[in-house]
Design goal:
It is a single chain. By secondary structure, the chain is α/β, with parallel strands linked by helices. It has a 6-stranded parallel sheet with strand order 3-2-1-4-5-6, sandwiched between helices. Helix 1 crosses helix 2.
Amino acid sequence: MDGNAVKAILLDLDNTIIETSRAGRLAIQKTSELLKTALALDDNTIVSICNKFKQKLLHESFDPAAGRSIDDVRVGHWDESIEETVGSCSTPSLAAQCYSVWKNSRLEVLSLSPEICSLLKQLRGRYKLLLLTNGEAQTQREKVEAVGCEEFFDAIVVGGEHAEQKPFLSIFRLCFNMLGVEAKDCVMVGDSLDTDIQGGFNAEVRATVWINSAEAALPGGSVKPDYTIPTVLKLPDVLAQLK
């Protein structure tokens, strides 16, 4: 990790600079309230519906060429989750209502904290910053717009808009070219060992920084980050060591 000074930082979005998991939990709570009112079901049944939706979201496979929007797909997740739990729904529009509440509630809660804004301003004064996020294009662009983070970055790259996403080397090379830097000039920062840290390792960046907010043990067999911090707010401490 010796070498030239760091010139650029690639930052992940979800659960790195914004608390997407927390926003998701709050959105599920709001949707649960709608389901309880609409279907008059007990709490356990509501939880079952929501858990099915979360599993479908987790294992989602979206193909834009199939002719359905991501909104259509996720309305379908709610429709299937309700039907699998309680049978056919007496309110045909309920799945669409659930999706609308879930999506809008999540976007409303997402934000850049004042501390994160201050950090990004500080970093932008010394480094080139690029936001590199995996995920479906519309969904990720909506998050970026909702939190208003464009002003802090020299470039924003959404994996869903390209042939390959993190951890594949091609998207990292794209980022390096956009910033006019080399891999050895860059630090990759993110919360995912499988995509952010593995991707940084594949791309041979100067250093990888794992955001481990749960302070969990490193899973056996996983890629080993160069640095581990509990929050991105500790990133300046790492950068000070890389001078």
